[in-house]
Design a protein that fits this description.
- With 359 residues, the protein is mainly alpha-helical.
- 70% of the residues lie in helices and 6% in strands.
- The chain has a four-stranded mixed beta sheet with strand order 3-2-1-4, with helices on both faces.
- β1 (266-270) and β2 form a beta hairpin.
């Protein structure tokens, strides 16, 4: 069933899917990069800090073993003092190592992904302690790959250590019976050789694991076609609901437009198909404004309201059709219509003037 589900995930993850995964703390993390960073930190410590720190520590040992009379051990306080002396010397030797490990470890994690607080990742979940879930994780493809990487690391490191110690077997034994400085220097050289090869191996493994984790993470986020459609619906809304909302918006706009018809100065109509209501008041603007327009039933409604309010209706099919197509509601008419509309407005003003003289 799980294989069928993966085979159906043929679509690349959307930006929303990726951002949701990042918000939930589902980020690609390579475990080998921190290991490589730790190995590099150890190597830097061995090359730059170990020689000087080791010489200081060896001098402290020589002071104790060459001048034992200078150290009294008559009571427990003397023993504690001697232990604390070695403790601080060893601490001075190891502090740079701890600092390097912390800095390189944190940097390796930050360079992969910026840290973020995700409470869901630390919330208790039963599947984390479930034996069945743990068994499935161990024997899954990622679990087997983790096992292969661990086996590779153990095999390589063990082989390197054996080869280095085998070649220097007698030299190491001789160093054990020589001056402490020589012995520690010999051990440092062996560690240096071991760490160089370890860094090379972990570096290759880290690069491969870096690309593998991102490929696996991206593959896990792949979506089925149904999931893509569902996400599009969530982002853009259900098409049926959106069509209904558009219809409601058009009805409201139509009602607002119809209520503006009584304010019109004249209506230009194509007997039954188109109607455009214009308002022109010299004090309001230099050009007429379209306050309403409609087609078919809406056009008939505009004409009826205009007749009820004694607004002149002029039948000019070409002009009505052109203005309906080119001018939107609440917009002034283009200059191309100035001459034709001006003649109609002049007729309206002349009719109004005659009506006032008659009255």
């Amino acid at each position: 069933m799980a294989d069928d589900d993966k085979e159906s995930k043929t679509e690349s993850p959307t930006d929303k899917r990726i951002s949701d995964a990042l918000e939930k703390g589902n980020v690609p993390v390579s475990r080998e990069i921190p290991l490589f960073a730790s190995a590099l930190a150890v190597y830097i410590f061995i090359v730059f800090f170990l020689p000087s720190g080791l010489s200081t520590f060896v001098e402290a040992l020589k002071d104790v073993f060459e001048q034992p009379d200078a150290w009294r051990l008559s009571n427990a306080n003397d023993v504690v003092a001697l232990i604390m002396h070695f403790f601080w010397k060893a601490g001075g030797l190891l502090v740079p190592l701890f600092v390097l490990l912390i800095v390189f470890g944190i940097s390796s994690s930050i360079l992969q992904n910026m840290p973020r607080l995700v409470l869901d990742r630390i919330a208790p979940k039963m599947n984390r302690i479930s034996p069945i879930a743990g068994f499935s994780r161990i024997y899954s493809v990622p679990g087997l790959i983790e096992f292969a990487k661990a086996f590779f690391k153990i095999a390589i490191i063990s082989t390197i250590v054996v080869l280095v110690l085998w070649n220097d077997y007698y030299a190491t034994l001789d160093a054990m019976f020589s001056d402490p400085t020589t012995m520690f220097a010999r051990i440092g050289d062996d560690l240096n050789q071991i760490m160089v090869v370890i860094i090379l191996c972990t570096g290759v493994l880290a690069v491969a694991d870096f690309f593998w984790t991102r490929h696996h993470w991206y593959s896990e986020l792949r979506m089925t076609k149904e999931e893509v459609k569902e996400e599009m619906k969530q982002m853009q809304g259900d098409p049926i609901i959106k069509a209904r909302l558009r219809s409601i918006a058009r009805d409201r706009a139509r009602r607002r437009m119809i209520t503006s018809v009584p304010r019109a100065t004249l209506v230009i109509a194509n007997p039954t198909h188109f109607a455009v209501a214009l308002r022109y008041v010299r004090e309001e603007g230099d050009a007429p404004v379209v306050v309403a327009k409609g087609q078919d039933l809406v056009a008939l409604k505009i004409r009826a309201i205009a007749e009820e309010n004694n607004i002149p209706v002029f039948e000019d099919p070409p002009l009505a059709r052109s203005m309906f197509a080119q001018v939107s509601v609440d917009s002034v008419i283009p200059p191309v219509f100035y001459k034709a509309v001006a003649e109609l407005i002049h007729r309206v003003y002349a009719a109004n003037a005659n009506s006032r003289r008659t009255n």
